[in-house]
DNA sequence: ACCTAAAGTGAATCTACAG
DNA sequence: CCTGTAGATTCACTTTAGG
């Protein structure tokens, strides 16, 4: 396995240097991939059409119409056509993956079983299936099925013996000391993050949240890695990759999406090296992980936190750890070190500035807890 | 869709009466299923071998053993054998399912994608994929992957137009009044529920928790339904089915498991009817034509009805239709037309005035329903 | 400006039955 | 098979409107 310290063991070949880095390539993803050199990218992310096969309109109980995914790119004549499409892009993708490369694919029950089986047949080796549990899904309006509250992602290496990248400690750190599980609770993409067109409508019907890609890229790539997105859309993968200091290549067929993504990417700023460094040591601790505050964008990597008396400050890092005065670690550890105290509750010690005021980060934890309580009701039967 | 009130609409055929109810049948599940009459069971639950790593034993439908192979080139052989086994039991299961029957299959990423694709290919219609999120999973000891903290279930009807059973209100009630989502947080089977053998070791490696089957059977069967478990194991499905007043059939190849399950089932007691009753929605109520309200003199022809905000009004006619603003038709049609909405539930939209208050006409329907129930209930004289 | 109420919205395979 | 109609059905969150 490649780890944080050994990731440079695999030298970039000549072919890799010729890659069209940090660009959006126009065209069909299979054709474009076939024009790229083999064994040249570290990670592929694919959010292919789901083949939803929707029939009539759907109305909410208040009679408003649900804005469905009826785009032409989601139309297939049947399972056979969809399977062939899937097999072809999976094969092309595997060719350009480095031997130790990996792939992430996201889908729903409409397509994910077919994609998963084709992926296994193509020689990929599944590492985990990961559930994106949506904290705020669209309900089932007709009361005819369960609320479709999740999507499924498959994480697979190029082959069974690939030394894939897995930043175990960074993910554990994002989860405040507890192993990251295969189910990730994250909100869908709404609000200011959701891109709008000229008319104020959503620019893309299926824009993914940056928090999802943040966790994927932190966990399965290193800074400087090349991340390829086969169905780039509005460029969420590119935006997060750029922010996190990874190189990206996007492939997108629709010009409208390419234009939106290009503008979006111009606004993204790369984090500095300090914010990008991730924890390699060990830690442990309790309930709501501070990493979720970062993943959810409540605090930005690179943002500064202050003690209430402003005597100490520290910088937020991408994996949910802090760095202040050369001390790295959890919000608790850094707070304790700077005070030369044996311990410190980072949640109440650290504050961020909003509109001139100092706000304790514990308010952000309370927000997350409120959401978790709403979405998470374990019941022993 | 079958609801609580209509589930008896589908008569049991002669064949159904010949089913070996509440028994554990010995043998290979495909052969046993082929000996059962077609279109005879309401629900099938299947917890098939997960094909873990293809390293353990895998048997073909003819009971011959597949040689486990680690060689890369032989992987396809492994998948092919597993796929054939899957297709055969799925086909046999579909034959004995009633037209409105459904199936649940549980698996992990090792097999669930292949099972799901085969299931779609066989003509089943996926209703939901459901995530069993384990509240207490085994951690990943080597730190090389994410903690595998969930399993995936697929819920599918026999065909696209099956009127499958879905007890929406009962599940909503289980979830404290909020509609049930596709992710279920439940603990794994441990403690006193976990069956032990003579030596005190776990009797079965993958015993499922009763809470899981409880939710499945409450949500997708009615009392008296026939539930078939193809890989019965220690009989969790049978135990929960018996407790919930469903009939079960179990198929199990291993004698040791059949013995354990038999003992287990003897200890299970069937709940009484009062405990079995579940919440039902309006769909289960008998239909009442608005004309009956007029016939019974609860509203007079010529009387005016109003929307709650009094923006629209309409006049009752002798035949139980309405006329408002030159639009004539049913209470639903006139309500929809006046609001320019695609549809409208006239029962809740229209109100009449009594003693200065606005009363929804649905209260009149409820009165009629109450009288109908009183008539149906024989009174001891 | 600030608080509250109302409206809007999200990858959705979303009805049952009489005639 | 088809068509037409009765009539049942929503959660979490954001944005906008109104006071």
TrEMBL record, chains A, B:
Domain DNA methylase N-4/N-6: 41-263
Enzyme Commission no: 2.1.1.-
A Pfam match: RAMA
Xref: Gene3D superfamilies: Vaccinia Virus protein VP39
Catalytic activity: a 2'-deoxyadenosine in DNA + S-adenosyl-L-methionine = an N(6)-methyl-2'-deoxyadenosine in DNA + S-adenosyl-L-homocysteine + H(+)
Domain of life from the UniProt record: Bacteria
Keyword list, A-Z: DNA replication, DNA-binding, Methyltransferase, S-adenosyl-L-methionine, Transferase
Domain RAMA residues, every copy: 275-373
Classification via InterPro entries: DNA_methylase_N4/N6 (IPR002941), DNA_methylase_N6_adenine_CS (IPR002052), RAMA (IPR040843), RM_Methyltransferase (IPR001091), SAM-dependent_MTases_sf (IPR029063)
Record-stated family: Belongs to the N(4)/N(6)-methyltransferase family.
Name of the protein in its database record: Methyltransferase
Lineage of source species: Bacteria, Pseudomonadati, Pseudomonadota, Alphaproteobacteria, Rhodobacterales
